[in-house]
Amino acid sequence: MEGIAIRLQGLRKSFGETDAVAGVDLEIRDGEFFSMLGPSGSGKTTVLRLVAGFETPDRGRIELAGQEVTGLAPFERDVHTVFQDYALFPHMTVEQNVAYGLRIRKVPKAERLVRARKALAEVRLEGYGQRRPARLSGGQRQRVALARALVGRPRVLLLDEPLGALDLKLREQMQVELKAIQREVGITFVFVTHDQEEALTMSDRIAVFERGRIAQVGTPAEIYERPATPFVASFVGTSNLLDGEAAHRLTGSPGTYNIRPEKIRVLKDSAGADEPEHATVAGTVAEIVYLGDATRFLVDLDGGGRLTALQQNLETSSADVAAYRGTRVRLRWHRRHAVRLPS
Amino acid sequence: MTTDVPSAAGRGTVRRLAGTLHRRPRLRLTLLLTAPLLWLAVLYLGSLAVLFVSAFWTTNSFTSQVVKVWSTDNFHELFTTPVFRQVILRSVGVALAVTVLCAVIAFPVAFYTARVARPGWRPLLVVAVLTPLWASYLVKVYAWRLILSQGGLADWMLAPFGLSGPGYGLPATVLTLTYLWLPYMILPIHTALEQLPASLLDASADLGARAGRTFRSVVLPMVLPSVAAGSVFTFSLSLGDYITVQIVGGKTQLIGNLVYSNIELNLPMAAALGTVPVAVIVLYLLAIRRTGALNSL
After folding, report:
1. What is the pTM of this model?
2. Ranges assigned E (strand) in A50-179
C-alpha cells in the first residue's frame, strides 16, 4: 500500500514583509523517510510548522492521509513533532513526559505505563523513566523527545533539526539509530535539516528548499548526481559549476554543467592515452588541501578557470601532497560525469 | 605627548591597586562586604535580637517601667487571652486572603503582559504595573478611603445593581491591601510566563492537549513556584501592615495595631506581639521552600 501521507498544494506563508514559504507543492509517501533540506531561512521549518498546525498558511492546502487539515489545530492532527530544543516538560519525569500524550487521550494508567516503558526501550533509555529531563545529557533528551512523539504512533512524525545540538560523534550515531527506528516502526518521518550530509545518509527522498520554494525533489542519488539547479549543485556537496565559454570549451557544447570534484582524476604525467569518452585538460596546481582521507586540488586551467578535484589518499601522504603545489597536472573525467543542468 | 606623563603615573597607582586586588581575592571580598554586613548584622539582626530578648521582660504595672527579668508571662498571656488569639488569627487570615486574591488577579494580568500583548508593548505594560509603587502609600490608602466612603465611588457604582460598597471594615482592609501589594505578585508571574519556552506550549498542543489542558498541565505547574515567590511578598507585607487597617478598617484590629498600642505602656508585650508575625513568616517560608519557590526569588 503506497499511499500519500502528506500532500501540500500551493502553500504560502509570509511573516510581515518576508515570504517564508512562497508556493510549495509536495507529496510525501506513506512510510517514507523524507528530508527537507535547505539553508536557514529557506522555509523548510515553516513548512514543518504548517504541517504540524503551529502556523496557519496564508494560502494553499494541507492534506494528511487524504484528509484536509489546513485549518485544524495541532491537537486535531495525527502528527507529532520532535522539536529542535526537544521541548521536554521540565517539571515532569522522563516517564511522565513520554506518557503525556497518552494521558491526554485518556489511556488507562496501567497501559500508559507499559507503552511509555516500551517507547523508552525503543530509544534505548530503559531505566531512565524516573529522572528529570534536566539530569539527562543532550543525546538522552533527544531520545526522550523521540519516544514521547513516537509512543502515540502518529501517522507522521515531524523532526525539526533534532540532531542540530549534538556533537559530531553523537550525531552520526543518532543518524543511524533514527533510521533504524524509522524502519522498525514504519511511520512516515519528515526530517528538517540544513546538513546536506545528514539528508543524504538518512533519507529515502529529499526536497531541497531555496528561498521559500522547492528547488528539487528526488532520491539522494538523484539530488547529488543530477542536480536540477546550480543552487542544488552547490548546496548539496561541493561542485564545479561551468557555464558560458568555459563550459563550451570543456564539454564541447553550451549550457550549464556540473562536475563533482571526486569524478575528476589528477594525472601527474602524460600517461594514459586519451580516450574519446574522457575529457582531459591541462593546468597548474594553485592550492592543495590535505584532508586526511583525501586531498583536494585546486587547479588553474591553461585556458582560464579553476577546477576542484578530490583524490583519495590511497598511497599518498601529507608530505607527498605538499610537493604538488605549483606543478603541472592534467585533469581527466568521464564525459558522462559532466552533468548538464536543465536551463 | 607631555600631558600623558602625569596621568600615566596616576594610572600606574590605580593599576597597581587593581593588580593587588586581582591577586588577593579575600581582600577584595572583605572590602566589598564589610559595610553591608555591618549594616545587616548590627542594625537588622541586632534590632531583631533586642526584640526577642525584650519579649521575655515584663513591665511594672504601676510605673510602666520595664523590668528586665526573664519570664515567659507575655507569651503565656498571648496564647491564653481570647482577644489576642482572635487578633492573631484574624491577621493571618487577612494575609492569606490578600495573597489568594493577589494570585487570582495577577495571573491573567501577567499572562496578558507576558504572552498576549505585542512584544514591543510588554516592557511598557510592566512599567504600568509598577507605577502605583511610585505613589505614596498614604495617598493610595486615603484614595481607597474615599472610594469606600459612604456614598463614595464604590457605593455609586454598585447602586444600579441594588448593592452598596463594603464600607470600612475587614473586607475593605483586604481589598485595599490586595490593591497595594498586587504588583509584587504580578512581577514574578510575568517573569515566569515570559521565560516559558513557546516550544513547550507547542509540544503540549502537538501531543493532543487543548488550551485548557496545556494551562493546567504545563503552564500552571511551571509558574507555581513564582506564584509562591510572589506570595512571600504579599503575605509578609500584609501581615506587617497596621496603617491601612486604621484608615479603612473601621474598628478592626490586626497584630500591628496591638503592637502599636502597647509600645508606650508595655514594651515587652509589644515585643512579644511583634515576634508573632516573625514566627508566622518563618513558618510560611518553610512551607514555601518545599515548592522550590525560594530558588526563583
Report:
1. 0.78
2. 59-64, 67-68, 79-82, 156-160
